[in-house]
Design brief:
single chain; alpha/beta; 7-stranded parallel sheet; 9 helices; globular
Amino acid sequence: MIVDYHMHLRGPDEGQAGRYSADRAEEYVAQAGRAGVDEIGFSDHVYYFRQMQELWEIPWMLERCGDDLDDYVGAVVEAKERGLPVKLGLEVDYFPGIERELAAALEPYPWDYLLGSIHFVDGFAVDQEPGLVHRVPVGEAWRRYFVSLRNAARSGLFDVLAHPDLIKIHGMRPPGEETHYLHVETADAIEAAGVCIEVSAAGLHKPVGELYPDRSFLELCHERGIPITLASDAHEPANVGRDVDRAAALAREVGYETVTVFEQRERRQEPLG
């Protein structure tokens, strides 16, 4: 089985359907079929929804809190009712200190899974320029990022950690020994927390030009029995499944034989296609 559990339904605000609709979801499903993907999951960014606005302090996020979460959830639920092979997820930014409030805000909705992401650390962006790696020494930036990722894993909020080594996006790395130490500590924490990681093709289209996570980190996760999902991080229908075959190939090369499938936050393993 091949899944793509990281994509964004949000579209342009045109027409009566608005940004989110089951008709738009059908476009994603059609492309998934062409790309050889069996099941897709939508996971729009949590910071676009006004129901979550009170949780954030980052101005960049607050400026984007204009959409209605009920519109998004309703569109995906309708797509499911049409019999489409889709799951309802959300990509949720982790910040320490708001775990209880975040859990309460997410609780009313029928999620199949929740992705945990680290896009900001200590107020600095991870995947923008100038970002965290431009504000502090690279080794310190990596340390802070992976501390945040470990805390996200331990929070109990998430089912999957998205693009788990996103900090490498700009191609800047500390020395190999330091990187390995951070990977080992983080893989240990993820194993203890019992969450999955995402093998994402998105990094192939970023300055780093690599899958997330890299082979060495993924090998450590496999050694610990950490389950995986697959992802394109598509922001439009045309990119659904893009290079997910390469993500699946890397997973198979390091020893994975199954992929995780979610339903109502319960997971099962299916043979990796």
